[in-house]
Amino acid sequence: MSSLVKQWPSSPAAGRGLANVASQPADPIADPSIAWPDTRKRVALGTITIDRLGANTPEQDRGLAFSPDHVPAGIKLADPMLTFRARAYPIVPRADRARHQASSQEGPAMTSASAIITTPNDRTLRTERIFAASRERVWEAMTDPALVARWWGRGNRLTIERLELRRGGHWRFVEHTPDGVQHGFEGRYREVTPPRRIVQTFEWDGMPGHVVINETELEDLGDGRTRLIVLSLFSSREERDGMMQSGMEGGLNQSYRALDQVLDGTAPSPRAGVPGMVKKVAFTMYPIQDAARARKFYEETLGLAVGVAGGQGGMHWIEYDLPGGGCLALTNTTGAQPSAAAGGTIALEVADLPALVERLKSLGVAFKAEGIRGPHCRMAMCLDSEGNSLLLHELDAR
Length: 398
Prior knowledge:
By secondary structure, the chain is of the alpha+beta class. 21% of the residues lie in helices and 33% in strands.
């Protein structure tokens, strides 16, 4: 670059932009690697004038890419050599070049060797990465707790304390590093549109109150690959720059390389007892005595919708799929007796606890306790029609 600056003429240099126009049905319009014949009509697009040249700063260079596989949606490359060579094009700062080259692997460029991170404006980071898997498979790896635990924390052991994949749902992950340090991260989901888009907040325990909004888009490239784009909005330029200087790029690429292994099946299998083996609670079951009476309570009093209901010879099994996830089952097949003193209870997340308590009382539902406070919630305990205890739970607004 420095030699080009020295050789550049002292006066501005101008050049015209020209474009060929497709005029025959056989002219390909979805593959920029195939040239049209020179006989096609050519039009002038305008004039480009360069007044001067100057070297970029390392920050300006970060994330620049001249890659033949960066094409608009709907455009597809037919020449596999362009995709193969795409890995050679990303330009990274000189200090990072050796690390970048070391992370590249030989073979077809089905994934990006590292994420491309740019700064579209003063408060935003844009991250782009290509994965060699279908969009549905990438979505599953990003939302299935058992798979997330195998890559999200740079490949370190990860405890998933909460992953409520719905609008308003709470997520919280804790990474356990090899030297025994724990890093907690959490946020709320603002939008979940499978298998394409997630909007969520992000907050690190080490900097409470500094919230980032991440918008994640998954683009199906149509050839078995998926482009991930994440826009991260910070509250200020200083917070964004602080994140960039914290080493987040290296950690992010470690996580994405671990995700590559999950997607291609080469990731180490979790050991027995390691968090991530248990995916979720399949269902929670309560014993009942009178199926008709129990159904009236859960369907009419609580307003739950039946998912499955079956019975034979006086034996009944009823399931309720809850709106926010989870399944509650009722049965009289086990021989167990309902009891509020059995030592366990089911906690139901509710939207408006005071209003629900008032309504249930008006219907004659008995309450064992009210006004129970937790660090981030409030609760009340009532009895169902069979004598089982139900804990009604509402998280505090954040």
